[in-house]
Automatic annotation (TrEMBL):
<dbReference type="Pfam" id="PF09996">
    <property type="entry name" value="DUF2237"/>
</dbReference>
<protein>
    <recommendedName>
        <fullName>DUF2237 domain-containing protein</fullName>
    </recommendedName>
</protein>
<dbReference type="InterPro" id="IPR018714">
    <property type="entry name" value="DUF2237"/>
</dbReference>
């Protein structure tokens, strides 16, 4: 892992083992030089975000076994691409973020204040 810290300055926690997420399918949302999509934000899927992502050309619902992708449902945790999360934020569809499982490298593009506003830990509804 290039970064093993989360946006809160602590150790990066696993985002999800079921379904297994991360660019390397090891459960973690950390930066890798060979990951141009930057799957560094641990997000809790919502119906609105899944529909938004599909409409934007990235179907996260349909299983793709050949890509080791199970298909996602609302409530699943998944490492999402930084640019897609920012785009969804700007359009009003950003999903909640699990701060302890989100790479500190994200702070280069998204402020901690913004991430805290979307913190899953502060959500009463997902």
């Amino acid at each position: 892992m290039e970064s093993e810290s989360n946006v809160l300055g602590g150790d990066l926690e696993s985002c999800s083992q079921d379904p297994v997420t991360g660019f390397m399918r090891d459960g973690y949302c950390y930066p890798l030089q060979r990951d141009p999509g930057r799957h560094e934000i641990c997000a809790v899927m919502t119906e609105a975000f899944l529909e938004y992502s599909k409409a934007a050309g990235n179907d996260l619902v349909t299983p793709r076994p050949e890509l080791n992708f199970p298909g996602l449902e609302p409530g699943d945790r998944w490492c999402v691409c930084v640019p897609r999360w920012i785009e969804a934020h700007e359009d009003g569809y950003a999903p909640p973020v699990v701060l302890a499982a989100t790479s500190e490298d994200v702070l280069e593009d998204v402020s901690l204040e913004t991430l805290r506003r979307y913190s899953h830990e502060n959500e009463t509804e997902v």
